[in-house]
Design a protein that fits this description.
362 residues, single chain, mainly alpha, 15 helices, two-stranded antiparallel ribbon
Length: 362
C-alpha cells in the first residue's frame, strides 16, 4: 500500500524514492511484522488462555513427558503470525502485483482451515478436529485456484514449465499436469510443516530459514539482470514476493519470542498449515519447486519418517522408529528437547545453504 501511494510521489519528493527499492520494503516488512508481533503477542496469549483454559489437548499416543510439560499451553498462536504478517504484507507490498494476492490466498486460506481445526480441538477438548479428508480437500481446492491464477499471470513456457536445478536451460513443459504438481507442492509443504511442529520452536525457525532463502530467490528471479547472470529463469513480478517472505520472517521472529522453550503459546494448525502453504506457493511462483525439497529438507525428513513408520508397521508389524515424526524418535531415545530443536535448526541451515548453491551451480 505504501508503495502504491508513495512511490508515484518520488519525482516530487526524493525521500519517497526509497519505496521503489525492493530491499527497503522487504526490510520494512520484516520490522513491521516483528514489532506488531511483539506488541500484540501478550494480549493475544492472555485472550487464548482465558478462552481455552486447559490449553491445547495433548495426544495420549505422543511422548509421555508432553502430558506434563505441555499441559495448559494455549494453541492457535499462528493467528499472531498471520495477523502481523498479513498487515505487514499489505502495508509494504505492491498491491497491484497478482503474485502477492495469490500467495496471500494460499497462506490465509490454509490458515483459516487450520484455525477451524484448532477451534474444534479446543472446544471438544480432543486432538480430533476437522476430518483429515475434508481438510485435505479444502486445501487442494484453495491451492488449485491459486495455481490457475499464477499460471495466468505468467507468459510463454513458464506458465506450465518445471525448472530443473543445476541445468540452466532445462524447462520441462508439464502441460496440464503442472496444475496437480503445483497443488501437490503447496499442500505437501503445508502438511510437512504441520508434522514438524511438535516441539517448542522446532517448526518456526526452519520456516524462517526457508523464507529467507526464498526471499533471496524471489529477488533474483524477479530481476532480469541477476537472473541472466545466474542463468536462472526470470519471472517478471516475482521479486515482490521478497516483501511477502520478509513479512513472514518478521512475524515468525515475533512469534518465536513467545514460542521459545518453555513455550507460552503453540502455533497450532493455524500457523503450521499456513506457513507451509506460504513456502509452497512462493516456490511455485519462483519456479523453484524442486529446490524446496532441499531448502525445506527438514520438513521432508519428518514427513518421510511418518510414511516409513506407517508403511513398515502395516507391512511387517514392526516400527522403524521408536516414535514418529522423527523428532519424537529422539525424544524417546532420551535427547533433551532443546538439543533436538537446536540440532534440527542446524540441519535446516545446512540444507538451506545447499539449496541456495543451486543458484550458481548451473
Amino acid at each position: 500500500m505504501l508503495f502504491n501511494f508513495l512511490a508515484p510521489l518520488a519525482d516530487d519528493f526524493g525521500i519517497f524514492n526509497l519505496f521503489r527499492f525492493l530491499t527497503f520494503r522487504t526490510g520494512g516488512a520484516v520490522m513491521t511484522a516483528m514489532i506488531l508481533s511483539f506488541l500484540l503477542g501478550p494480549m493475544l496469549i492472555r485472550r487464548l488462555r482465558k478462552m481455552q483454559r486447559t490449553g491445547q489437548p495433548i495426544r495420549d499416543d505422543g511422548p509421555g513427558s508432553h502430558l506434563i510439560s505441555k499441559k495448559g499451553t494455549p494453541t492457535m498462536g499462528g493467528f499472531l503470525i498471520l495477523l502481523s504478517f498479513g498487515v505487514s504484507t499489505l502495508l509494504w507490498a505492491d498491491l497491484s502485483n497478482g503474485f502477492v494476492w495469490a500467495a496471500l490466498l494460499v497462506t490465509l486460506g490454509f490458515g483459516a482451515v487450520g484455525f477451524v481445526d484448532d477451534y474444534l480441538k479446543v472446544t471438544r477438548k480432543s486432538h480430533r478436529g476437522v476430518p483429515g479428508r475434508i481438510k485435505l480437500l479444502v486445501e487442494v481446492g484453495i491451492a488449485l485456484v491459486a495455481t490457475i491464477w499464477i499460471m495466468r499471470l505468467m507468459s510463454g513456457p513458464l506458465d506450465s514449465g518445471l525448472a530443473v536445478p543445476f541445468f540452466k536451460d532445462v524447462l520441462v513443459n508439464l502441460g496440464w499436469l503442472f496444475a496437480p504438481f503445483a497443488v501437490f507442492v503447496m499442500v505437501g509443504a503445508s502438511n510437512a510443516v504441520n508434522l514438524t511442529d511438535g516441539l517448542d520452536g522446532l517448526a518456526i525457525v526452519p520456516v524462517m530459514i526457508a523464507a529467507a532463502s526464498y526471499a533471496l530467490i524471489a529477488y533474483l528471479v524477479g530481476n532480469a539482470v541477476f537472473s541472466s547472470y545466474l542463468q536462472i529463469h526470470s519471472v517478471p513480478g516475482a521479486g515482490e514476493l521478497a516483501v511477502f517472505c520478509g513479512a513472514l520472517i518478521g512475524g515468525g521472529l515475533g512469534f518465536l519470542w513467545f514460542n521459545a522453550p518453555p513455550a507460552s503459546v503453540f502455533m497450532g494448525d493455524t500457523g503450521s498449515l499456513s506457513m507451509g502453504g506460504a513456502l509452497g506457493v512462493v516456490a511455485v511462483v519462483t519456479k523453484h519447486e524442486l529446490v524446496l525439497g532441499v531448502i525445506g529438507g527438514l520438513f521432508v525428513l519428518e514427513t518421510v519418517s511418518v510414511m516409513v513408520q506407517v508403511a513398515s508397521f502395516k507391512l511387517t508389524g514392526k516400527r522403524v522408529f521408536r516414535m514418529a515424526p522423527l523428532h519424537h524418535h529422539y525424544e524417546e531415545k532420551g535427547w533433551a528437547e532443546a538439543t533436538i530443536v537446536i540440532r534440527f535448526w542446524i540441519i535446516a541451515v545446512i540444507l538451506a545453504l545447499i539449496g541456495l548453491s543451486t543458484l550458481k551451480l548451473r
